[in-house]
């Protein structure tokens, strides 16, 4: 695990974009793992700038980390919509090249199995982008998630619903259930880029990076990942 601390989130976005650009220009069929939340925003903006400068993403395939259950198609906070808005369209990645778990599927466990298989069939994820929740979650693997878990339905805990309520009109509108890649799925990516910014993430980052490897802090899987880069602004690194 390498830890890189830079003054601002804009600086960490540039380093993350360099890693992704390297992948995209050297591989004929790169596979990206995409995250939602506000943290990767500066990275997606930096990639968009590079795309406008000539970097092509036309040959990229991508898999999303997670999705809410029960939001109707087209709901602006459905992660499939967020990724289309923030990544797929600005980078001109073909729509069909980006997949996520379908939170409207009739049979959710079967959908999770299909999704896990789709990642395997694509040859696995080359570079996985991830944020960290204030309670140490990664994707939607809440504290207590098995370290070897695969894509599956999960129930959100109160803190995560509260944290994510800022994207919805009220707390009641935040879904209670989600589908998420498991810690085992994320652990199989070839390079994990974990980004965090702001003081609100400092405790979670310290637990993930310096605490024990433990299900109580799912993001602590960075410690055992074969190639993890933790990119922090100074505020997020302030408790290391
Ligand atoms: C959500 C997402 C996570 C993300 C987390 C942190 O719960 N499922 O993938 O890392 O929020 O979000 P933010 O970056 O907005 O703090």
Task: Summarize the structure in words.
The chain is α/β, with parallel strands linked by helices and 240 residues long. The protein has one domain: Rossmann fold, CATH 3.40.50. Helix content is 31%, strand content 18%. It contains seven helices and ten strands. It has helices spanning 9-26, 41-52, 79-88, 108-121, 158-164, 183-187, 202-210; strands spanning 2-6, 31-34, 61-64, 66-68, 98-99, 127-130, 152-155, 177-180, 191-196, 228-233. The strands form two sheets. It has a seven-stranded parallel sheet with strand order 1-10-9-6-2-3-5, covered by helices on one side. A three-stranded antiparallel sheet has the order 4-8-7. It is globular and about 40 Å long. The two termini are 14 Å apart. The model has no long low-confidence stretch (mean pLDDT 97). 2-amino-2-deoxy-6-O-phosphono-alpha-D-glucopyranose (GLP) binds at residues 35-39, 65-66, 131-133, 139-140, 160, 164.
Spatial extent as radius of gyration: 16 Å
* Level-1 CATH class name: Alpha Beta
Q: What is the fold named in CATH at topology level?
A: Rossmann fold
Number of domains: 1
Present as ligands are: 2-amino-2-deoxy-6-O-phosphono-alpha-D-glucopyranose
| Number of continuous helical runs | 7
Shape: globular
Number of E-state strands: 10
Query: Residue ranges: pLDDT <50 for 5 or more in a row?
Result: none
Distance between the termini: 14 Å
Mean pLDDT: 97
Q: Helix amount, in percent?
A: 25-40%
SSE sequence, one letter per element: EHEHEEHEHEEHEHEHE
Largest sheet: 7 strands, parallel
Helix and strand composition category: alpha/beta
Architecture (CATH level 2) name: 3-Layer(aba) Sandwich
% residues in beta strands:
15-25%
What is the strand arrangement across the widest sheet?
1-10-9-6-2-3-5
């Amino acid at each position: 695990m390498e830890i890189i601390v830079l003054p601002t989130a804009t600086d960490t976005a540039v380093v993350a974009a360099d890693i992704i650009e390297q992948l995209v220009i050297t591989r004929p069929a790169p596979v990206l793992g995409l995250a939602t939340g506000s943290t990767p925003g500066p990275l997606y903006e930096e990639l968009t700038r590079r795309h406008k400068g000539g970097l092509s993403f036309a040959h990229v395939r991508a898999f999303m980390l997670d999705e809410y259950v029960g939001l109707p198609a087209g709901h602006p906070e459905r992660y499939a919509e967020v990724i289309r808005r923030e990544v797929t369209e600005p980078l001109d990645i073909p729509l069909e090249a980006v997949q996520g778990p379908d939170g409207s599927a009739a049979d959710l466990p079967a959908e999770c199995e299909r999704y896990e298989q789709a990642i395997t069939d694509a040859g696995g994820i080359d570079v996985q982008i991830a944020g960290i929740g204030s309670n140490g979650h990664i994707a939607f693997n809440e504290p207590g998630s098995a370290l070897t878990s695969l894509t599956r339905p999960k129930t959100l805990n109160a803190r995560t619903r509260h944290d994510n309520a800022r994207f919805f009109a009220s707390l009641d509108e935040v879904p209670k259930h989600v589908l998420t890649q498991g810690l085992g799925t994320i652990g199989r990516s070839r390079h994990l880029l974990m980004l965090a910014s702001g003081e609100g993430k400092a405790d979670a980052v310290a637990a993930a990076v310096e605490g024990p490897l433990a299900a109580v802090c799912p993001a602590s899987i960075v410690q055992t990942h074969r190639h993890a880069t933790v990119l922090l602004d100074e505020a997020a690194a302030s408790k290391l």
